[in-house]
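Hey, I'm writing a tutorial for new members on how sequence and structure tokens pair up, and I'd like a real worked example in the thread rather than a made-up one. If someone can provide the structure for the chain below, I'll link this post from the tutorial.
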Amino acid sequence: MTLKLRPYKPCDADAIIRWIRDEDMLRMWSADRFGSYPITADDINHKYCDLNGDCAEPDNFYPFTAMDESGRAAGHLILRYTDPGRTTIRFGFIIVDDEMRGRGFGKQLLELAAQYAFGIFGARRITLGVFEHNVPAYRCYRAAGFRETGETRTCRISGQERRIIEMARER
């Protein structure tokens, strides 16, 4: 099955909240950028549409949804620049429909987004962070060409310190 990437629409939030099955998944997906669990479609749309994804710059938040061949939402992620020269894109809020996990759709989503970042946005580098304990996501990112940068950071999620491994892919 082939995925296609398109700009996020508010109706996509319904699919995303179905994929977030528990609080731990919410925290790993959003790195605690949302308040309490469970979140609603309105919570996502408020952050994306009303708050510009918490980005201060007006043209720096690009949410996308991956659609399968039947037109059903299959995955989601956001892109944003992280440098003033607009050469580095950060991927975030990466999620794939749990019914499709383990079949290469995450890698396909990342490949499509990389084509967009490099080809349309003109990025020279893409970065992302993955929680150390999220081994399936780490393996997916490696399969999509991302490599550890050697940088790590920690954040407190649900009262626990969680280590985040920084990864990057060059053009």
